## 1
Amino acid sequence: MKIIRLWSSWAIVASLFAFAIALQAQTYSVVYNFGDVFLDAVAPQHSGIIAQGRDGNLYTTTPFGGANDYGAVVRITPAGQATVLYSFNHTDPDEAYPYSGLTMGADGDFYGTTLGERPNLGGKVFKITSDGQITFLHTFVSGDGQHPFAPPILAGDGNLYGTTSLGGNSSHGTVYRITPSGQFKTIASLDYKRGYYPRAPLIMGTDGNLYGTAWEGGTHGTGTVFKVTLKGAISVLRDFDWASGAYPSGPLVQDNDGNLYGTTDGGGTNGFGTIFQITSARKFKVLRSLKSSDGEYSAVGLVLGTDGNLYGSTYGASNNGMLFRISPAGEFSVIHGFDMTHGGHPDVTMTQHTTGILYGDTTSGGVHGYGTFYSLDANLAAYAKLVPNAAKTGSTVGILGQGLNSATAVSFNGKAAPFTIVSDTFLTATVPNGATTGLAKVTLAGNSLSSYRNFQVIPVITSFSPGSGPVGTQVTITGVSLSQTAMVEFGSLAAGFTVNNDKQVTAIVPANAKSAKITITTAGGTAVSSASFTVTP
C-alpha cells in the first residue's frame, strides 16, 4: 500500500505539472489600448459583439468615445492597428450609444444597433460597410421596441433577427426581423412571465429556431432562457430561481449536438453567478457556481472553441476579472487574471478568429484606463467560418479563413461544391444539390480548413400527394434536402415515415390527426408545407 501511495503521489505531481504547462501555454496579449489616439473609441461594454470581416480584421463598437463622445465603430487588425470608422453624433438622439457590437451579414456589411437616449423611444438599427459608410435602417418606437442593447443576428433565411430591451405590447421587450434593405417587422413581444429586458443577441439554433436570454422576469423575476420560432411563437426553456443562477445577460452558444450553454450574472451557490447547460433533451444543469477565485460575475456569453471547450470571462468585483475555460462536462480552470495594467473587467463576449486565436475587450484598465482589446492564444486550431451557417441548396455562402488563395476544393459534408476565390481571407461557395448537414471543408495547398460547427442544409417541402384522405393514408411528400429526415408531423402529431431519397419521403397519416400543415424536421432544420393536408372521415 505504501508503494501504491507513493506512486499515486508521483502521479498527482506529474498531473499537476502537466496541467501547469498547459496553463502556461495560454498566451494573453494586449493588442490595442483604447484611447491611444485623439478622439478614439473608448470603454467597450456589453454586449459589444466582435465580428470578423471578409478582410480578416475585427469590427466592433464602443458606446462612448469617438469624435462626439456618443460612441464609435472601430476596426482593429490582428496586429493591433485600430481605425475609427464612424463616430456617432447627437443630431438625432436615437443615433447615440452603440452598445451592441456588430454582426457581419451575408453581404459583407456589418449590422448593429444604437441604444438611443430618449426615455420613451429610442434606438436604431444600422448597417455599415468595412470602410465606414453607414445607413440607418430603422428607428424604434414604443410599439415595435425600445433601446436595443444587442446587434441583430443573421439567420438561414437571409434576414436578421434581434431583440429590444423594452417596448412591445407589454413594454418588456420585443423580438424583431429586419431585412438587409431595412424592411422591419416585430415578430414577438415578451411579457414578464416569459422574460423581461433581453440584453443579449439571439442565436440561431440547429433546429432553425432562435434562442435567447432575458435578464429579468419569469416566475421568480430572475430571468429566463427562451426559444422563439421565426414566426414569433415564444416558449420558456429555463426559469431561473437564484439557486440555478440569476440575471442572464449574455448570449447562448450551441454545440453540434444541440446542447445550449450560457452564464448568469448572479445567483448560484455563492451568489456570483453560474455557468449552465441545457441539453438537446431540454434538461438543465449547472456546470459551475462561480466563486470569488473564479473572478465573480459573468455578464457575457461563452465561445465554443475548436477544441470543444468553452471559453469565457468574469467581470470581477473584489478583483479585476478573469478568463476561464470550462469543458462541457464542467471541468473548470482560470487561464488569465486581469491586473488593470493590461486591462480590467472584461464585459464583452470573446470571439474566435479563424486563425484559432480568441479576441475580446475589457471595459477599463490598460495604458489610458479606457479598456483594452486583447488576444488569447490557447493553441486552438484554425478553422473555416461560414456566413451564414445555414442555407438551402443552390444558395451562395461566404467562407472566412486564411490561405484561401490556394484553395483547390470546397465540400459540404463531403459533397463537392463550386467555389470562387475572392481573397486570401474570403471565398464564396454554392451549396450543391444533395448536400447534407455536416462539416464544411476547404482544401488548401498542403493542408485544409474545416468548420467546427455543422453547416445546416435547410430542407424544403414543395408538394405532397394526395391532398386529402382518412387516417392511415400514405402521403408522398416531395421537396429538397429530405434525406436526413428525423420526424414527420401532421399538425403536432408525429407520423410514421420512410425516406425514399433526398427529394421524397412517404408518411402515414397518424391516428387522431386533424387537417393541418405537414412539417418535416431534419438535421438542417424544419420545413413546413404551404398547404394543409385535409383529413377526411
## 2
Amino acid sequence: MTIDVLDDASLGSALAALWQRHRQSNLDRISALEAATADVLRGIVDDEVTAACAVAAHQLAGSLGTFGFDAGSRAALEAEFLLREPSIDGLRLAEAVVTLRYSVEEVGEASNAAPTAGPGQMVPEAGSTALILSLDLDLISRLTAESSAFGITIVPIMDARSPRPSGADSSTPVFVDDDPTRSWSRSEMLHLISTLADGASVKVLTDGDTLAERLELARAGATGVIPRSQSARQIVLDLTESLGNWDSPHSIVLTLNGDIELLDMINSSLNTANWRVENHDNATQFWQALEERGADMVIIDAESGEATSLELCRVIRAHPGWRQLPLVLVGDQGTDRRHRALLAGADDYLDTRLSRHDAGARLRMQLEHGQAVRTRNHIDPLTGAENRQEAERSMDRLLRRSHRNATPLAFVLIVIDEIDEIRETEGNAMADVVLRGLGARLIDHFRGDDLVGRWTPDGFVLGIYGATRKVASERVIEVSQAFSAESFSTTSGARANYTFSAGIASSPADGSSLSSLVRVSETALRRARAGQNSVVLAGERPPEHPSNYVDVVVVEDDDSVADVIEYALSLREYDFVRFSDGAEAARALGGGEVKAQVVLLDVGLPSLDGFGVLQTLSDQGVLNDTKVIMLTARSNEAEMLRALGLGATEHIAKPFSLPVLLGRLDQIRVRVQA
C-alpha cells in the first residue's frame, strides 16, 4: 500500500473522528490545569498536584499537536515548562492555560456544530402493519418500498368511505394523506380523522404547517403532523414511533433504600413479572451496580441521608449516559423537600403516605416515559440494535466490569460482505432488509450481559461478557452459519444468500481500552474480508510469521495519540500491539513474549520511562533484531543524543506528521527486510 492513502481529505476526516472520541478527556486535562492555575494564583502550591498537571500538560502537547491544534500544543508545552519550575510564574501559567483552552474550544465547538445522525426512533416489531389513506400512487409505492426494510407492511386505502379493510385491527396506526388532489373535502377529512383516532394513532401527511392548521388537526384527534415534502425513508422512521414495541420484559429498577417497609411498598407497587427491583442499602454498592448493569429507573430513599440522596441525583444527572434516566425520590411529605429534590434533578418526589395504587401508577408512568426516551435516543431504528453512541457507552461499562471482576470480554466487529454490491444491484432498500435481518439474528442470539450495537452503516459490534476469543469465535460462527443459510427475496424475484465477516479481539489479552480493542479487531476484520476465513481472531498471524511476531509495537500511554498512530498503521495493514506501561512493554519485549521489527517508543511513560525501556532492550539484546523510533513532546539535542546513544534508530518530536512517521517506518522496515 502506498502513501497515497493518507490524502488530506481522508486523513482530515479520520483525525476529526478520532478527536471527537478523545475530545472530552483532553478537555478534562485542561480543566485540571485551570484548577491548578487558580490555586497557584492564590498562593497554594501542592507538589503532587503540580507534578500530575505537568504530566497532563506534557500529554496535551503531544495529543493536541497530533490532532492539528498547533497553538494548543505550544501553550501546553509552555504550561509544562512553567509547572516544572521551582518557582511557578502564576500569571504566565494563566496566560498559557487560557490560550490552551481557547485554541481547543474554538475548533472543538466548530466541529461539534457539524451535523450528526438524527436521533433514533421506536423500533417496531417485525410483521407490524400500518394503513395509509391516500390517492397518491407514487407516495404509496415509495413508502411501501422503504417500509419493507423495517419489517412494516403498508396497506393502502383509497376509499375514504371504507378507511379500514375488513379484518383490520381498530388499533392499527393510520396515515392520512392531506394531498391537495384528494377527492374528499377538508371537513370530511377532519371527521374521518376523528373517527379513526378512536383507539388508534393517526398521523397526517400535509404541506400545511401553520399553528391554526395543526390545532385543527389536533382537535380532530391527530397524534402527529408529518411534512409531505420529507423523504419516504424519514416518513417511515416517524411511523416506527407509532408501531414501537414499548414492552420491556427485562426492565431493571435500581433502588437505594434502607427502609424495609418502603422497599415492600415499591415492590408491591411494581408488582409485575416484567420488572425486577434490585435494592442496595449503601451508595457504593448502588453506584457500582448502576455502572456495571445500568437501569431503566432509579428510586432513592430521601430519608437515607438527604445530602447523599440529593448529591446522587446531581451526579446521575451530570453523567452523559444517564441524563434522561427516570429518577424518583421517596420520602416524607414536605413542599421544601420536594422542591430541593426537583432542583437536584429528580423527575418525581413520592410521599411515603401515598397509596400503593397511586405510587405504582406514577412509577409506571416514569418508567414507560424513560423507556420511550431511551429507545428514541439510543436505539438504531432500522436494526433494533444500540446505536453507535450508546454502544460505545455500553462497551465502556462492560470493560469496567470486566476489569473489576478480572473476567474476559470479547469485542467483535461484523460487516456484511459485498454490501456495496447489494446496494448497486438491488438498491438501498434491499441492503436495509439484509442489515435488519442480521441485526435481528444477532439480538436474538446475544442476550443478557452481551451487547449488540450498530457500529457502522454496514456492520455491527458485539460485546460478549465472560468470553475469550475462542469462545466468542464459536458463538459468532454459529450465527454466521445460520445467517448464510437464510435466503432473501431480491428485486428480480429470485432468492439470494449473504454472508458476513468478523474480527475478534478480547480484553485483557488484546488491550484494556476500547480504542485498543477497536484497532486490533479492525485489523482482524480486514484479514477476514481479504482471506479464506470469515471469522478471524486478533491473535492469529499469517503462516509465515511466528505467533508472537508483529510488525510494530506501540508504547504510548496517551490513548488519543495511540489512536492516531494505530489508525495510520492500520492503513498500512501492519500487525501491531500497544503497551501503555513502560515496565510492561520492557518485560514483554525483553522476555521474548512479543517480537517486532520496529518499536515506536514514547519517552514519558508510567512505571518506566522510554529511556529505561530502551536501556532494558539494549541489555537484553533485543535491539540486534528490532529498531526503535523514539517519540516525545520534549525534543532537544541532549535527549536525541541520549536516545541514539542507547540504541534508538530515529527520534521524532511530537506533534509529528503521520506521512513522515510512516515514511520513516517504511524505510526502516525495508532496511530490516533487506
## 3
Amino acid sequence: MRRFRFSPALPKAPFTAADVVLLLGVASLAYAGVRLAFGAPPVIAGPEISTSPGALPWYAFLSLARMSVAYLLSLAFSLPYGALAASRPALRKVLLPLLDVLQSIPILSFLPVVLLGLASVLPERAASELAAIILIFTSQAWNLTFSFYQSMTTMPLELREASSIFRLGRWLRFVTLHLPFAALGLIWNSIMSWAGGWFFLMAAEIFTVGPRDFRLPGLGSYLQTAANEGNGRAIAYGLVTLVGIIVAMDQLVWRPLLAWADKFKIEMTESDEPPTSWALDALSGSRLARAFRTNVAAPCAERIERWITGPLDAPPRPEKGPTRASLAAKVGVAIVVLAIGYAAFRATDLLARVSGADWRRLVLGLLATAARVSVSLLLALAWTIPVGVAIGQSRRLALVLQPLVQVVASIPATAIFPIIVIALLRAPGGLDIAAVLLMLLGTQWYLLFNVIAGTSAIPVDLRYTSDLLQLKPLERFKTLVLPALFPYIITGAITASGGAWNASIVAEHVVVGGKRFATLGIGSIIAEATAQGNYPLLLAATLLLILCVSAVNRFVWRRLYRLAEERYRLD
C-alpha cells in the first residue's frame, strides 16, 4: 500500500484557446440574457401562497416533482458528459474547462437574468417553473458529473483490460463496467444532490425582481412565506413535512440503492456487516416486483439496448466521405462562433460602463471572498474526514447518522441565517464570521457525502490485511484510508468550493428586519448590483468570479485529479 504523498513534478496546465472561447461564450450568453431581460413585462403578480396545513400535501408534491425532474435531467447530463470527458482526451480539453465554467457560474446572481429573459419569451408561470428547475439542476448536476468522471479515471486497469479482452462495445462497457464501478459514488452524490436541491428550493420557488413576482406554490415558498409572516406554527408544519419526505426517501430510495450497490464493490472477501434494507428485502420477495422485472423491465431494457447497439448480425457500416450533413455542421459551427464573437463584442460595451473605482472594488471583493472560501473549506475538511470515515466504516453508526445527516444537510441554511447574523452582529468581524458559517453550512455536505462514499468503497480484504499487519490507527489512516479517499476528497472539494463561491452572494449581503447588512466581497457586490438593476456591474462581477473559479480549478484541482488518477487507483 502506498503512502500518501504529493508528486513533486506535475505538468503545468496553462489556459488554452478553448478556455478563451468558453469564457467568451459565457460572456455572450450573459449579454444575451441581459438584452432579453429588458423585454420582460414591467409588472408580474405571483400567486398567493397559503400557510394553511391543508395546503402542504399539494405543495410538497409540487416541490418533489420539480426536484425529480431536475434530478433526472442532472443524471441525463452527468453520465454522458463524464463518460466523454474521461474516455476522449481530445474532448476532455474542451469538456473539463466548460464544466469548470458551468460550475462557477453564480446562479443566484444569474437567476434574475434567466427569469426575466424567459419571461420575455414564455408565459409567466412556464418561465417561473423552468427557471426553478434550472436552479435546482445547477445544485445537483456538477457533483454527479465530477463523481462519475472521477470513477472512470480511477478505474483499475485490469477491469479495462478485461472489457477489451471480451470485446465489449461502448454500451455494454458502460452498463456492465462503468456504471457498476461508479454506483456507490453516484448514489452518495445523488443523496447530496437532493440535499443541495432542498437547500436552493426556497430561492427557486419564491423570487422577486423589483415589481416582478416569480413565486411558485411549493414547500419552499410555504416555508419562506411562513418565515416572512413570523408564523412559527406554519414553519413547524413545513419543517416536519420536509423531514418526513427526507426520511421516507432515505428508507424507500437511498438505503435500498446503497444495499443493492454494495455487490459492485471490488473486494475478495465479503463484509461481516453488509448494508441491509427492509424495503429492498420486501421488493426482492414480492411476486408483483418479480413479475414487473420479468415482463416489463427486462424486455424494455433489452429493446433499449438493441436500439442503441443495433442487431448483433448487422454488417459493419462502410466508411463514408464528407457528406452534406458534415458540411452543414461545419457551417453551423461557424455561425455559432460568429454569433459568440458578436455578442462578446457587444458585452464589452456593457463592461466599458464599469468605472475604475468599481473594478478596484471588484478585485478587493474577490480577494476577500476567496479568503472566506478557503477558511470554510479548511473547516469543512477538518471535521468531515474523521466523521465521514467513522460513518463509512460502521454500518451501525450509518443506520443512525445517515438519515440525520440528510435531514440537517437539507434544511435551508438561508432560513436560519438571519438568526446567525443577529447573534454575531455585535461581535468583532461578526458579519465576516457569519458569512463563513453560511458558506460552511451550504458546502460541507459535499465533502462529507464523498468521504462516506470513498470509505464505503474500500475493499474489506484491504482492511483485513491492515489488521493482520497490526497497523496502528494513524499508520492505517496514512497508508490505506487517506490514499483510498483521495479521489473522493478532491471531487468533494471541487464541488464544495464552487458551492461556497455561489453561497457568498447570500452570505455577504443580508437583509434582517428591513435593515441591510453587507461586507466586502464579490458576492456582496453581485447582490447589490442585482438589487439595483446595475447590469454592467453584475456582468463584470459574474465574469470575474467565473474567471477566478476556473483558474483555481485548472491550476489546483485539475492537478490533484491527475495525481489521483496516476497514483491512487485500486490497481
## 4
Amino acid sequence: MKPTSPRPAPAPRAWSAGWLWAALVLLCLAAYWPALGGGFLWDDDGHVTRRELRSLGGLFRIWFEIGATQQYYPVLHSAFWLEHLVWGDSPLGYHLLNVLLHATAATQFAVLLRRLAVPGAVLAALLFALHPVCVESVAWISEQKNTLSAVLYLAAALAWLRFDTDRRPRAYALATGLFVFALLTKTVTATLPAALLVIAWWRRGRLDARRDVVPLLPWFAVATAAGLFTAHFERTLIGASGEAFALGFLERLLLAGRVFWFYLGSLAWPVQLMFIYPRWTIDASSFAHWLPLLAGIVLLAALVWWSRRARGLLAAGLLFAGTLFPVLGFFNVYPFLFSYVADHFQYLASLAVFALAGAGLLQVTASLPRLGRKAGLALLPLGLGVITWLQAQMYHNEIALYETTLARNPSAWMAHNNLALALTRAGRVDEAVTHLQAALRLRPDYAQAESNLGDNLTRLGRPAEAIPHLERALRLQPAFADAHNNLGNALVAEGRLADAIPCFETALKYKPLFPLAHRNLGLALAVSGRTDDALRHFARAVELQPDYADAELAWAVGLTLSQRFPEAEPHFRRAVELEPDSLPIRYSYGRALAGAGRTDDALRELQVAVELNPAHAESHYELALLLARLGRREEADREYQEALQLNPGLAGPR
C-alpha cells in the first residue's frame, strides 16, 4: 500500500467513475434482489416518517425538536421525509434507494483509493459492494442511516483531499459542510477527522501540525460534541442504561478486544451471519477472556514494528479499529441490550479492510498470467455476491428474518418476541404465544414479552390468564403505556369495565399520542353509557391516525347509537374505503343502514358480509331479517336456517 509518490494520483475521468457506478448498481441489484420485494422490519416504523411529521411543520420538528424522531439524525429523517413524498409507504422505493446509495458509496470508495494511489481500487470497491456483511445495512430500511452517511462521509473525504492539494477555502468549506451533514445522518462518521490524520501520516510519513492538524480541529470539536450528544441521547431517551449496561472499564476493555476480532473474522469468513448475535458474558477473572485483548496488543506492536518498512498495514489497522471505536463497548448503545455486535456496526470500518484486501490480492496475483489473474480476482467478488444473495433472502419479511435468526441463535429472546409480533399480525396467535413463552424463559424480566403474551391470551379468549402477565409487566415497567392498554382490554373481556377505564386513561397519561388507547377507551366509555366522552376519543384516534379503520368504525357506531346516523355515515364509508374486506365494518354498516330504513343499501352491505365470511351466523341472521322486511320470504328462510345451523342460539322472532 506504500504510495509511489507523495502527491495524489490524477482523479479518474468522470465517465470511468460513471461506468463503474452503473456496473456496481447492476451487481448490487442482482445480489440484493431477494430483499427488494421485502416489507418493513422491526423499527422501520421509527425511521420512515410518521404521519404527524409528514407536513412542512413536521420537517421543522425533525430539525428543531429533540425527540420528534427516534434519534436526532435530521439529515436522515429529512431524506425519509422527502422519500415519503415520492413513494409513500411503498417499501420498494426505500429498498431501491438503499441499493443505489450503497453502490454510490462503493464507487466513491474506488475514486478515493485511486486518488490515494492505492492499487486494486476497483477490486476493493467490488468487495465492499458485494460482501455479505453489508447486507444488514443495505437490506434493512432503517439502516439507510448507514448507506446515506457513508456517501456523505466519503464525499467529505474526497473534498478534503482536494483541499489538501489546493488549500482553497471553498474546498475546505465544502468538505466541512459535507462532514457536518454526515454527522447529522449518523454519528459514527465522527471518526472521519481522525481517519484523515491517519491517511495524511500514511502518505507523508509524518504529521505537520499546521498543515494537517489545525484545519481539522473544528472537525474534532464538532465530532466530539455530536458524539457526546448521541451518547446522552442513547442513555436518556432510547434507554441504553441500567443493569444490562453496567460494565466496568476493565470489562469494557476486554469486550473491545473481542469485538475487534469478531468483526475482522466476519469480514474474512462471512458465514453464519445473524441479525441478532448471542450476547457474550465478559469475565475479567477468566484468562480466556483476556486472550483477544492480548492478541490485539500483539498485533498492534507487530504493525508498529512493520511500519518502519511500510506504513500501509498499520494505517489500515488504525482506520479499522478507529472507525469501530464508537461501538467497541466503551459507550452504551441500545443494541448492547441483546448483543454486543451487529453487522451494520462495521459498515464504514470495513472499508479499511477492503482497501487492504484489494491491494494485497493484486500484489499476490501479480505473477499470474493476465487472463488467469483477472478471472481469479473476479471469483472472489462473485462468490461473495452469491452469499449476499442468500443472506438477503432472510430480509424478505419479518417472519423469515426472525425464524432464520432463531435457527442460528436460539437464545435470541428479542427475536422470539419480534417473531411473536409478526405472527400475531398474521393471525397466528397460538404460535405467537409459544414464542413469547420462550422469550420469557430466556429473559424472565422482559416486560414487553409479558405485555405481548397478555395481549395474545386476551385475543385467544383467555383474559383471566392474561391479567397476571400484564400486571407483572407493569410491576417491571410501571410507565409502560402498551401494557396499561392491554390490561384494559383484558379487563373489558372479563366484564370489568369500571376497572378497565382507568387503565386506558393511564396508558394515555404516559403516551398521549396513542390512537389505539383512545379507541379502546372510547369503546369502554360507550359501553358504560358515556357516549359523548367516547366520541371525543374516537375523533382523537382518527386525528392521530387518519387511516385507522377500526376507530372510524367505532366513531360511526357511537354516532349511530346516539341516533345520529347522518353524521355516522361518512365514517362508515371511510372505514369501508380503508378496509373494504373487513367483515365487522360491512356487518355494522349494514345493520346501521337497516336501522335507518335504507334497505337496499343495507342489503348490499350484508350480502358482502356473508360473502366475506359464510360462517358468520350473525350476518346471515341480519340478512334474513332484512329479506323478510322486503317480503322475500323464501330467501329469508334460507338465510335464517343457515344462521341457526351455524349458531342455534340465534333462534328467536323474525
